Amino acid sequence: SLPLLALAIAVVRYKDKLVIDSEWDVFKQIINSVGTAFPYVFGIVVGRAMKLFGAWRLEHGVSLGVLEQIMGSSTLGSALTTHTLLRPINWATLGLFALWMFSPIGSRVSLGLIEPKYQPVLSNTTVRYLDMTQASKFYSEAAEDQVEIIAGPINALYASSLMAPETAKMSSMDQWGNIKIPYYDRLNVNLTANSTGWINLSSLQPSDIKYSSLLGVPISIPQSSKAGNTTWTMSTTYLSLACNTLTREPLASHGVSSFTSATNASLIPHTLLFQSPIWTDDLSLNATANLTMATAYCDLSQNYVDVEVLCSDVESCGVVAIRESDNPHAPKEFTVLGFDFGFKMLSYLLPLATGESVTGGALPQSTATELFLSGTSSTLSHLTKVDLSLLTQSEMEIRLGQVLNTYVEPARYYTAALSPYSLTGNLTAGNTLEILVPGTSTTLSNRYCINKKWLAMYFISCTVLLAAVLCGIILKAIVVAPDILGWMSSLTRDNPYVGVPGGGTTMAGGRRARLLGMVRVRIGDVGEKGGVGYVAVASENDVRGLDKERVYL
After folding, report:
1. Residue 288 above 60 pLDDT?
2. Of 41, 241, 360, 388, which has the highest C-beta tally within 10 A?
3. How deeply is 214 buried, as exposed, middle or buried, from its count of CB atoms within 10 A (0-12, 13-18, 19+)?
4. Which residue, 481, 500, 527, sits at the end of a domain?
5. pTM of the complete model
6. Do 461 and 440 share a structural domain?
7. Is 321 within 8 Å of 307 (Cβ atoms)?
8. Domain membership flag for residue 119
């Protein structure tokens, strides 16, 4: 029983250890061997203990019914047979069946004590991401930041983002592996925040999430964490718009007098005037006198959010929760476009970012930016003219916000010394404009997993087996009467019909069987021939065969 118990101890010691294939092969062989051997060992040990227990009860006095139950329960099968024949209803029946049930239970549960399983292993890591609240190159008046120098890469990155397929625009990552930030203020109103303000986004479909930009926040995850899931929280910002209803107005109606003069920029949101020409078939590019413009005034605000990011690998990352940032920030009225020089740079570069509204001379055509704002599936439609005055207020706010954020963000990449042509994995360690945050990495590791319920049942079965061993040893020591129960040689004791010498009352059944092993016996009729027959075990030559027609006592 101790080797069987040793398996349980070994199982406990191997809990949560890494699986080594060669060790597991040996473990499986041991487990299968124990599962096979357990009922045999249990039957031998408990069967012997039952016989000694019967002898002890017989020595102290016991009813024949209970003695038959005990002696007839040397195995699980014999216990079922004996109790089926005798049909006793007593505590001995319950006790014997409860005892023998541990034989199949111990055998079965031993096969499922331990098995290899891939389990999540948590570890701490550090994630780096670009500080998106930093100053933009649009603000710089340095010679190396002239329009001619920075416009090319920024326009290329912006245009490629606009012309990306719809799946890329709806993805949680941009084409360079950066994390896109959802519009916090455009989330479904049915979503509720928890006690700390977080809104879970994991249940949403990709089409339900509106992202604030077609470009994302550059990140860098340690190589050791790329094999599993990595989560972290970061703070970032984006530009948000609140536009009035789009109108159609003549081009000439918008001069300097159309704007409000602001003396306290912290109290009055900055206002953006957006205009897009509405081309008709009777207008050419040079005929602008009667040109009608789709016009909207949009108040600008800078939204600051905290996001929880989950990366299942380096190519599958996304924001799974978001809340308004609880860190101290500048007022929302101070926006990335709130500086005169930066706004002038944007106003000059953005309208020309994807080419002028002309193809082959004087033929008017909407730009790729205007096509994106209209919601056209292809931003490369040939000679397409769109009327942006048909957009709803919400569509204009979302898409124009995406356009502005997409164009502004590459200027921040420049500030951080990132090449817009090669963003992926380009956030080098030690960058002064990066932010380091703690993260949690979860990797799957093949480790030994224990079935605690089955282990408990196996321990109980082994304990019962060990108790049977101890009981057998104790009963063997205290029983004085000879071991005669269960031995056929005991039928010769004090039997006048078997020709054996008298005496030997203290002789155990095993010794008597060895001494009388050559004596032949037979059950038959030892009565007189003419009278009533008498059935007994007798010497083979002193007994007649039984006759079904004869009457026996």
Report:
1. no
2. 388
3. buried
4. 481
5. 0.68
6. no
7. yes
8. no
Question: In terms of domains, do 137 and 235 share one?
Answer: yes
Q: State how far the Cα of 435 lies from the Cα of 234, in Å rounded to an integer.
A: 9
Residues 137 and 94 in one domain: no
* % of the chain at pLDDT higher than 90: 21
The answer to whether residue 120 sits within a structural domain is no
User: Rounded to whole angstroms, how far apart are CA atoms 262 and 446?
Assistant: 64
Say yes or no: 417 and 531 in one domain: no
Q: CB–CB of 234/437 below 8 Å?
A: yes
Question: Is residue 354 located within the same domain as residue 322?
Answer: yes
What distance in Å separates the CA atoms of residue 37 and residue 24, rounded to the nearest whole number? 20
How does pLDDT run across 145-187, given as a tens digit for each residue?
A: 566 677 788 888 898 899 888 889 999 999 888 999 999 988 8
Q: What are the residues whose beta carbons fall under 8 Å from the beta carbon of 26, sequence distance 6 or more?
A: none
Q: Tokens in use for 525?
A: 């009729």
Same domain flag for 47 and 152: no
Burial 455-472 (b: 16+ CB within 10 A, else e): bebbbebbebbeebeebb
Nearest to 322 by CA among 134, 185, 456: 185
- Are both 510 and 455 inside the same structural domain? no
366 with 267, same domain? yes
Query: Cβ distance 337 to 238 under 8 Å?
Result: no
Say if 20 falls within a structural domain. yes
Name which of 281, 414, 284, 300 is nearest 347 in CA terms. Answer: 300
For residue 4, what is the enclosing H or E element? helix 2-13
Give the C-alpha separation, 35 to 23, whole Å. 18
Q: Residue 358 — pLDDT band, cuts 50, 70, 90?
A: very low
Residue 254's pLDDT band (boundaries 50, 70, 90)? Answer: low
In a domain, 539, yes or no: yes
Cα separation, 302 vs 536, in Å, equals 110
Last residue of a domain, one of 427, 446, 465: 446
Q: Which residues are within 8 A (CB) of 468 and not within 5 positions of it... i.e. 6 or more apart?
A: 1, 45, 46, 49
Alpha-carbon span 406 to 353, nearest angstrom: 12
Ramachandran bin of 442, using left for φ above 0, alpha for ψ from -120 to 50, beta for the remaining angles: beta
Torsion angles phi and psi, residue 219, rounded to 5: -135, 165
Give the structural domain span for 156: 129-446
Which burial class, exposed, middle or buried, applies to 84 when counting CB atoms under 10 A from its CB (0-12, 13-18, 19+)?
Answer: exposed
Q: Summarize the confidence of residues 530-542 as an average pLDDT.
A: 85
Tokens of 222: 């340690």
Number of domain units in the chain:
3
- Joined together, the tokens standing for residue 326 give 């609880």
